[in-house]
Amino acid sequence: MGVWFRLGKLELLVVSDGPIRFDAGALFGVTPRVMWEPLVGPLDEQHRLTAGLNCLVVRSGGKLVLVETGVGTKRGSRAPASAGLEETGRLLSELAREGISPADVDVVLNTHLHFDHAGGNTVLEGGRPVPAFPRARYFVPEGEWQEAQRPNERTRATYLAENFEPLDDAGVVELVEGPVEVAPGVRMVPAPGHTAHHYLVELESEGELAIYLGEVAQHPLMLERVAWLSAFDVLPLVNLETKKKVIEKALERRALIVSVHAPYPGLGRLLLEEGRRRWQPLPPEGHE
To answer: Residue 19: helix, strand or coil by DSSP?
Structure first.
């Protein structure tokens, strides 16, 4: 069962869409295997690393905001062949365990539109995809929306039209440019690099700050070691600069971090010890 916790006046809950498995070599890109393998734990027989799909629920200003939707339940959807999706698609059932129905969600935020972050935007009804959250407005970075409409040879495997075109058909899309506050204390902020128009989400209340990373870093080790970048980053050197700024802010503000692909719940803080960064994972109830 999930645990609601507070950040100032905001109520937060991390909800899992289930574990996903990524090819470990792709996840860590050009970083030599001998450097990262001793630090990440066991891999499966296909050399895949088990990662999280941590979505975030926020209650603010009378609105219920959902940040990211995971892989979703449309099992017929295409997805990168190396990804292990057998245990994904839990978001709706996990929300139901918290007493939250799809119709309770007022706002859905997508940091970007890759299949493992936006797949739960839609569900199948009568064999066709429709918005999974029927009352919600879906906030998407405008540049990301445009990129997803015309994927190239590299991105077409992860920009799946069934995850976002039905939103446009239903007239529920809000395209975002620049920093935008979508509810009191809930702010979408440009964080380019993983994709050209990738965003992160900042949550701020009563002097406390939390940062939902999106894919600024795919693994907490990438926050400790700034030069470690993923092969999934479309613009890796841009993401390097973005990550340095995010790390600096997280350290300065002692921000609570929500790492999307860390094991559930993906909560932690960055600490600076003798000039070295260290990721300190935290349970939801221990976020203080």
So the answer is: coil
